[in-house]
Amino acid sequence: MVFSAKGSHANYPFAGSHVHDEALIDLADQGQIWDPVQPAYYYKYDPDEKTFTAADPGKTPTKWLYFNGQWGDKQYPDSDPRQKTVPYFGLKKFTDGPNGPQFKHLVRKGLMPDERPKDSLMMTAVRWYMSMYGCCLKGYNPWVVMISILLGLAVSIGLIVFAVRKLKPYARSWIERRRGWFVVRKERISRLEQEDVQLGLLGREGTDEEGRYRYPE
Predict the structure, then answer these.
(1) Hey, is 111 helix, strand or coil?
(2) Binning pLDDT at 50, 70 and 90, where does residue 98 land?
């Protein structure tokens, strides 16, 4: 079951707000239930020949799958009252329709394309911002939010550096004490091992009844 977005061809696995094209929000809700199985057309795609074969050749057309243009309306001009520009990002709300299935990387291991394009730093920041927009950032200027975050990170890094410098002498002293304790312990263990070796070489005749070494008179 998928949920169609309002005013969009997008489908999502659950209802609610979803980020679309980095800076747009789709609203998907529970509307009229529609079962697409009965009226659906089924095809098999050959990636080597780039051809579609219909499951029911006599009733299912295939020519429409080879259309190389855009599916849907052309992008509305800025003069059109329906067209809107996303503030601060410059993205248009109504753009050209998508292209056909043959351009969608149909041969893949999962639902998403195997080789997804790498996001730039700006796109990552925008995606994070939009994911927080609905619950926490709505109504705030995005540049104010970004600058506040950068200032917060700078202050946090400064506090960490200050704390490290202040605690460094104490940490060094603690490390030296622990190192000295390990050295003393290692020397003690080594001395005990040497005594055990000496006692083993002397045998029982060189020790008293309690196992201690007995010097010859």
Answers:
(1) coil
(2) confident
Which pTM was predicted?
A: 0.46
Q: Count Cα atoms within 13 angstroms, Cβ side, for 177.
A: 6
pLDDT digits 0-9 by tens, 107-134: 888 777 777 767 667 667 777 777 776 6
- Number of domains the chain contains: 2
> What is the overall mean pLDDT for the chain?
77
Residues 6 or more apart whose CB falls under 8 angstroms from that of 18 comprise 5, 10, 12, 25, 26, 27, 28
Sequence letter at residue 67:
F
For residue 24, the surrounding DSSP H or E stretch is strand 24-28
Q: Which helix (H) or strand (E) holds 28?
A: strand 24-28
DSSP 41-109: --EEEETTTTEEEESSTTT---GGGG--S-SSPPPPPTTSTT--B-TTT--BSS-PPP--GGGS----S
3-4/43-46 β-pairing: unpaired
The last residue of a domain, from among 71, 101, 120: 120
Q: Which domain holds residue 158?
A: 149-206
Q: Is residue 6 within 8 Å of residue 17, measured between CB atoms?
A: no
